[in-house]
Amino acid sequence: MAKEIVKTLCRMCDNRCGMHVFLEEGKVTGVEGNPDHPWNWGRLCSKGKAAPDIINAPDRILKPLKKTPQGWQEIGLEQALDEIADKIRQIQAQYGKRAMSAWKGEALGFNQEEEMVRRFCHAIGTPNYFSNDSQCFVCRYMAYRFLYGTGAYPFPDYANAKCIVIWGANPPAAHPFMTRMVMEGKQNGARIVAVDPRLSMIARQAHDFIPILPGTDGALALGLIKILTEKGWYDHDFVEKHAYGFEELQSYAARFDLDYVEEETGVSREAIEKLALLLYKSSPHVSIYIGNGTEHHVNGVNNSRAIASLIGLLGALDRKGGSRVLEGAGVRDMTLYEEIPLSHLDPIGADKFPVLYDQRHECHTMTAMDAILSGDPYPLRGMILTGANPASTNPNVAKVKKALASLDLFVVRELFMTETAELAHYILPSATFMERTEVFCHAPIHLLNLTPKVFSLPEVQDGYDFWHDLAHRLGAGEYFPWKDAEELNAWLLEPTGYTVEDLRAHPEGIVYQPHRYEKWKEAPLATPTGKVEFFSTYLKDFGMKGLPEYVSPSYKADPEHPFVLTTGARKLLFVHSRYHNIPRFHEACPEADLEMHPDDAAELAIADGERVSIESKIGAVEMKVRIVAENEIIRGCVHGIHSFIRDNVNEITIDSENDPISGFPLLKSIAVKIRKIKGEGSTPHQPD
Ligand SMILES: Nc1nc2c(c(=O)[nH]1)N[C@H]1C(S)=C(S)[C@@H](COP(=O)(O)OP(=O)(O)OC[C@H]3O[C@@H](n4cnc5c(=O)[nH]c(N)nc54)[C@H](O)[C@@H]3O)O[C@H]1N2
Ligand SMILES: Nc1nc2c(c(=O)[nH]1)N[C@H]1C(S)=C(S)[C@@H](COP(=O)(O)OP(=O)(O)OC[C@H]3O[C@@H](n4cnc5c(=O)[nH]c(N)nc54)[C@H](O)[C@@H]3O)O[C@H]1N2
Ligand code: SF4
Ligand SMILES: [Mo]
């Protein structure tokens, strides 16, 4: 039988590469890269190629399940939705509307899939919307927003750069096709610098690798700012006309004596001076990309803000070869916060992290676990969770499991039986990306796309149908007036000037607008002063520090725990807790390991492959040590991969020490002690 080809975007991760899906008798039999799609030009990574393994996985949940004293029982979809609606009504009658909550995870990303969850919260009158985002990108988001007033963060113009700094990120694992852009810049003559405690894949490709102690990036950035401002190596004209708070930043950075910066960061004075000179000589064609590595710390926002300040100082904002300020396509937003911000209903965590709620309209997941367990500040008794596995991916998973298991109603929309789904009262089978239709923008290249529903399965709902059906059962149908996701897409697209039909005719996407440089010449920035805010007037109005003040990470003052643990550097094969159930992926990388410097291992008499106990202040986990080469990790630092089924480092990551602005937890600068396990010998390690 002839194969049918449907053109879509891969969503095995959020890179959304152009993909051809081969269908035979309605079944997905293969995938290939779409050679016409300008994001990936026909290539797919190993996860993308494995999409059929996930779509057709034998362990996929395809029927609604209800937990009973006899175990999981299949239940009809309509009955499951009726029962869930009844229970929501009961909970809200007994404890108030805000006792219900919803959570969306990384598998759904942003835009409409996220917005429909938020809209449901509005529909049922609760402010308690949670997501993975408050431990994902929000520090960087805030950094750029406070400085430059942007929404999507400014994206490096790699191809035209003279210097590219990849700071706390590893695109070859996390954003494979962005690596191509970095390499294009390199071929065009850019010098590549990587700042990382580990010799990551991108660091191996860099001209200069700057190993840094975890969580000290802000000190390095401020040291650089000190040199640039003292020597006058910044864009005087841009700063004078378009920046606010330069003098304050300059005088604060002046305190960052290079001896102190060297001691604090582990980066030598010579390396700092060399980088400052390179930035100056390359300016304004300096592309800085800030990754997840800088933000999982108690100083996450200000680390990211200090680094991002360099863009403004060097006059690289929206300049050729600098950081481009992106423009949206004008797709409608489904949320209703402009009408009703819901802040009057005491969103969970908004008292502790008011900036998080004000900026993102989302609640703090880690505070939620405490609230569920204690009933303080009010009972939080029900949750609908979709596209997430926090019992594996959030810090302090023991607490997460205890809290989620204690809810009166816990509904999980999933593809598989996960650590989180196991705790649910109901598991509803969820559509994969091939079983839903979505509008999607590749913001960095201003490309608007529409993905079609490739096929569908009975009793497996897409997000829209689920939230729509539940809202209608709860008497809040007016919030979901669109018949289905197709009708919703038409509404979302209306202001863009493109129709569903236009986009269907262009599965390779439509460039909605060419990039325009130096837009700050035409209009003020969307910050309170209309300027680059080196000193944030917004934060000051919130009673916080206006400057990106540096706080030394807590592990430095903890002699009981002599190592610093960083976690979660991405592996190409896995996305957090996902894809371990693909047999060949599991075989290629069956175990989580702890990377360690050979001298540290020698000091503790630990052999390669030996299992050790790693203890943080909240508990201990055992992992297998992988001794790496001397230049592959900075001394005193160990790295643990996260969210493997066994040996999950999130047993010991810390939920209760948080960045005061974003609420981010400690995932990447944790004080730990490493102990040999009695009687443990050495076993050979598996390669990466
Ligand atoms: N294959 C795959 N791709 C993914 C994901 C995945 O799980 N798997 N996850 C997606 C998601 S949700 C995200 S948020 C992105 C993240 O994408 P990136 O931001 O590129 O994250 P990583 O690839 O983990 O790279 C982070 C780097 O920071 C380093 N690092 C750790 N601590 C520090 C520190 O204190 N300072 C500095 N300077 N560096 C540090 C790590 O060693 C690592 O090399 O990836 C996305 N893409
Ligand atoms: N220690 C440590 N922990 C970390 C990090 C770290 O660096 N270190 N990184 C953090 C970051 S940046 C992030 S973003 C979070 C991510 O954490 P989560 O949001 O929990 O992401 P995943 O583990 O990818 O879980 C996604 C779940 O959604 C399911 N799923 C897949 N596709 C679909 C779909 O189409 N619909 C539905 N309903 N479900 C689907 C998958 O089966 C999977 O169980 O992890 C964080 N955890
Ligand atoms: S990077 Fe890989 S998994 Fe992610 S969208 Fe592209 S092909 Fe799919
Ligand atoms: Mo993330």
Topology:
Layout: E1 4-9, E2 18-24, E3 27-33, H1 46-49, H2 51-55, E4 65-68, E5 71-74, H3 77-95, E6 100-104, H4 111-124, E7 129-131, H5 138-148, E8 155-156, E9 163-167, H6 171-174, H7 176-187, E10 191-196, H8 201-205, E11 208-211, H9 217-230, H10 236-242, E12 243-244, H11 246-253, H12 258-265, H13 269-282, E13 286-290, H14 300-313, E14 323-324, H15 354-360, H16 365-374, E15 382-386, H17 390-393, H18 397-405, E16 409-414, E17 426-429, E18 438-442, E19 447-451, H19 463-473, H20 485-493, H21 500-504, E20 510-511, E21 532-533, H22 537-541, E22 563-567, H23 583-588, E23 593-596, H24 598-603, E24 611-616, E25 619-627, E26 637-640, E27 670-676
Parallel strand pairs: 6-7, 6-15, 9-10, 9-13, 10-11, 12-21, 15-16, 16-17, 22-26, 23-25
Antiparallel strand pairs: 1-2, 2-3, 4-5, 4-17, 8-14, 18-19, 19-20, 22-27, 23-26, 24-25, 24-27
Helix pairs in contact: 3-19, 4-19, 5-14, 9-11, 9-12, 9-13, 9-14, 16-18
Bound molecules: ligand MGD (2 copies), iron/sulfur cluster and molybdenum atom (MO).
CATH level 1 name of the largest domain: Alpha Beta
Strand order of the largest sheet: 5-4-17-16-15-6-7
Helix/strand structural class: alpha/beta
Give the CATH architecture of the largest domain.
Answer: 3-Layer(aba) Sandwich
Q: If you compute it from the alpha carbons, what radius of gyration comes out, rounded to the nearest whole angstrom?
A: 25 Å
Low-confidence segments, given as residue ranges, are 684-688
Unique bound compounds: ligand MGD, iron/sulfur cluster, molybdenum atom
The CA-CA distance between the termini, in Å, is 40 Å
Helical percentage: 25-40%
Mean pLDDT: 96
Number of domains: 4
Number of helices: 24
Which fold does the CATH topology of the largest domain refer to? Rossmann fold
Characterize the biggest β-sheet: 7 strands, mixed
What share of residues are in beta strands? 15-25%
